[in-house]
């Protein structure tokens, strides 16, 4: 009897670990299939140009203000912190290079993706989730309209186009914010600031930032739409509660995957 109790105490954690691992692998497979279906349906005719343009306005144009605001203050903070760090080594002339490379390689794509997740990703998850619980997606299937092609593919296409543009905007505004702090407030020569940027930033840095932004766009749309699309299968909530849980999960999972993906991509791009 004691042997059986000890054996059960050993097996129970292993069983829970196995179930958790199996669940994670299954979810990763479902998400991957969801993404590939959504991406393939972008190229099916007739092309959904109008819906894609509407989503570009929602994801891209409506995010410009928050991207500019975040980029400006990020660049200003980098300029301030970088100046007081470099002044210890007598290397304040490298401030422009430090700000530009930090923004273009890392902070630009990552913070842009997180801002878009909070502003547009949560709305996507809520929209698709509400359509699911109100049986609008079932109605589309009844009318022989592919709901993934109708709802998800335009969002994915719009995000793949908009995210690199928003990232470039974030980088430019952030560099100008660093210039405002470093040159206007702290007295570094503007010529030195921009010359260091010109000599330090190479095409591979910019290309790597754009590659990250495209991958992040796919992560955001896939996770947010997946969470909303399968709201009705959640065991922890139904109806409006299920939509709220799906929206929260979409934002949290997207932000975590953005950081994980950023590390993986950086290790390959360096």
Summarize the structure.
This protein has 270 residues and is mainly alpha-helical. The chain has one domain (47-269). It has helices at 2-41, 49-59, 64-86, 95-133, 136-142, 147-185, 190-200, 203-229, 239-269.
Q: Top keywords for this entry?
A:
270 residues, mainly alpha
Describe the structure in your own words.
The protein is mostly helical. The chain has one domain (47-269). The protein contains nine helices and no strands. It has helices spanning 2-41, 49-59, 64-86, 95-133, 136-142, 147-185, 190-200, 203-229, 239-269. The longest helix has 40 residues, at 2-41. The protein starts with a helix and ends with a helix. The model has no long low-confidence stretch (mean pLDDT 88).
Radius of gyration: 23 Å
Number of helices: 9
Helix content: over 70%
Record field, number of beta strands? 0
- Overall tally of structural domains: 1
Shape: elongated
Largest sheet, in brief, is: none
Output the structural class.
Answer: mainly alpha
Secondary-structure element order, N to C: HHHHHHHHH
What is the average per-residue confidence, as pLDDT, rounded to a whole number? 88
| End-to-end separation | 58 Å
């Amino acid at each position: 009897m004691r042997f059986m109790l000890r054996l059960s105490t050993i097996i129970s954690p292993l069983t829970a670990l196995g179930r958790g691992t199996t669940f994670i692998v299954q979810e990763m497979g479902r998400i991957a299939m969801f993404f590939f279906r959504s991406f393939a349906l972008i190229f099916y005719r007739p092309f959904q140009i109008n819906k894609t343009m509407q989503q570009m306005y929602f994801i891209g144009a409506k995010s410009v203000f928050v991207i500019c605001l975040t980029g400006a203050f990020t660049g200003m903070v980098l300029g301030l912190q970088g100046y007081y760090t470099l002044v210890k080594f007598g290397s304040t002339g490298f401030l422009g290079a430090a700000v530009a490379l930090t923004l273009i390689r890392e902070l630009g794509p990552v913070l842009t993706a997180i801002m878009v997740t909070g502003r547009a990703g949560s709305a996507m998850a809520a929209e698709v989730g509400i359509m699911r619980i109100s049986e609008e997606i079932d109605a589309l299937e009844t009318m022989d309209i592919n709901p993934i092609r109708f709802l998800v593919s335009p969002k994915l296409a719009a995000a793949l186009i908009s995210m690199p543009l928003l990232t470039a905007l974030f980088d430019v505004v952030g560099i100008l914010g660093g210039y405002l702090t470093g040159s206007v407030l702290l007295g570094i020569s503007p010529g030195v600031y921009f010359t260091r940027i010109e000599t330090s930033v190479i095409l591979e840095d910019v290309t790597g930032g754009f590659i990250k932004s495209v991958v992040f766009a796919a992560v955001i749309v896939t996770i947010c739409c997946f969470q909303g699309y399968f709201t009705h299968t959640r065991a922890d909530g139904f109806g409006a509660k299920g939509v709220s849980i799906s929206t929260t999960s979409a934002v949290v999972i997207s932000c975590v995957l953005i950081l994980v993906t950023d590390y993986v991509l950086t290790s390959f791009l360096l």
